[in-house]
Amino acid sequence: MPVIDITKDIDTRTIIITAQFAAPVERVWAVYADPRQLEKVWGPPQYPATFVEHQLAPGGRMTYYMTSPEGERFGGWWEITEVDEPRSFSFRDGFADADLQPLLDMPVSENTFTFETADGGTRAVFTSVYATAEGLEQVLAMGVEEGATSAINQIDDYLAA
């Protein structure tokens, strides 16, 4: 399993997931840089993602929805703030309605995903910081830890296929 550590800190409003992949940094980066590849691993396996917009560049925007086994759609958006290919990117992440418009009453997080060579593969650190402790507690109650872990744990199998 690629996920090797999860740290949650309500006081700093932060969740950090660390993973180790059996592939070079450039290959892991390519998953995030290509919407068709990202769709294979974003979200839990039973909730496949479809990216409608995908621009991994500063000022770029991404919108997507995940489809439940019952056909219900759950939207999300990213606003890309920084890109240091292939080492890291940062973005704001939020929830969206069925038309992929931001849901203003839902938590928004500031995220940084970093990738570095380690142990013959890639060590990735996924850091999310919420504006409030209540926002972090809300997404934890919604299952973000389990969802993110199951999504990240798909990446090695996808890269090996």
Please state how the strands of the largest beta sheet are arranged side by side. 1-2-8-7-6-5-4-3
The total count of strands amounts to: 8
Q: Which CATH class is shown?
A: Alpha Beta
- Based on CA inertia axes, which overall geometry fits? globular
In N-to-C order, the SSE pattern is EEHHEEEEEEHHH
Task: Supply the key terms.
161 residues; alpha+beta; Alpha-D-Glucose-1,6-Bisphosphate, Chain A, domain 4; 8 strands; globular; START-like_dom_sf; SRPBCC domain-containing protein; ASHA1/2-like_C
How would you briefly describe this protein structure?
The chain has 161 residues and is α+β, with helices and mostly antiparallel strands. Helices cover 25% and strands 43% of the residues.
Walk me through the structure.
The protein has 161 residues and is of the alpha+beta class. The protein has a single domain (3-160), classed as Alpha-D-Glucose-1,6-Bisphosphate, Chain A, domain 4. The chain contains five helices and eight strands; from the N terminus they run E-E-H-H-E-E-E-E-E-E-H-H-H. The protein has helices spanning 25-33, 35-41, 133-141, 144-152, 155-160; strands at 3-9, 14-21, 49-54, 61-67, 73-84, 88-96, 109-118, 121-130. The protein has an eight-stranded antiparallel sheet. A hairpin with a 4-residue loop joins strand 1 (3-9) and strand 2 (14-21). Helix 1 (25-33) crosses helix 2. The radius of gyration is 15 Å and the shape is globular. The relative contact order is 0.24. The mean pLDDT is 96.
